[in-house]
Amino acid sequence: MLDVKLKLDRATKPSGVDLLAAVIGIFMRDGKILVTGAAGFIGFHVAQRLLGAGREVVGLDVVNDYYDPRLKEARLDMLKAVPGFSFIKLNSSIARR
Ligand SMILES: NC(=O)c1ccc[n+]([C@@H]2O[C@H](COP(=O)([O-])OP(=O)(O)OC[C@H]3O[C@@H](n4cnc5c(N)ncnc54)[C@H](O)[C@@H]3O)[C@@H](O)[C@H]2O)c1
Asked: What is the DSSP code (8-state) at residue 66?
């Protein structure tokens, strides 16, 4: 198992974390935070930061192959090792083809 150490920067205040969550994800009714693109570069780091702040996070990602999906799976494995993280594999697009 990977040893994941999640800590907030000392300079980061909880309000900053909440603002980040408001921009990238949405607060869910039960207090969990939905982070879209959680397997991607930005979503992964946002999820890590939120978990480090003690928040519960639901990650959502389709895990597309825009670049090597193994990197995304590795990120998800790291997040899944942290209590408070759950994952939904889903295409959130409503675009019609
Ligand atoms: N990384 C940067 O420096 C940077 C800078 C400016 C803007 N952005 C923008 O921010 C966004 C995220 O950037 P990133 O670097 O994290 O990209 P990324 O490709 O690493 O992550 C995006 C994630 O979203 C997922 N995704 C894409 N479409 C989806 C869908 N329909 N449903 C569910 N999941 C879906 C992908 O599988 C991927 O894991 C992008 O729109 C990017 O253009 C990134």
From this structure: S
pTM value is: 0.80
Task: Tell me the DSSP string of 60-90.
Answer: EE---SSS-HHHHHHHHHHHHTSTTEEEEE-
Chain segment 32-66, per-residue pLDDT in tens: 999 999 999 999 999 999 999 999 999 999 999 99
The CA 42 to ligand 1 mean position distance, Å, reads 7
Q: Is the CB of 63 under 6 A from ligand 1?
A: yes
Question: Judging by DSSP bridges, how do beta strands 33-36 and 25-27 pair with one another?
Answer: antiparallel
How many Å lie between the centroid of ligand 1 and the Cα of residue 18? 20
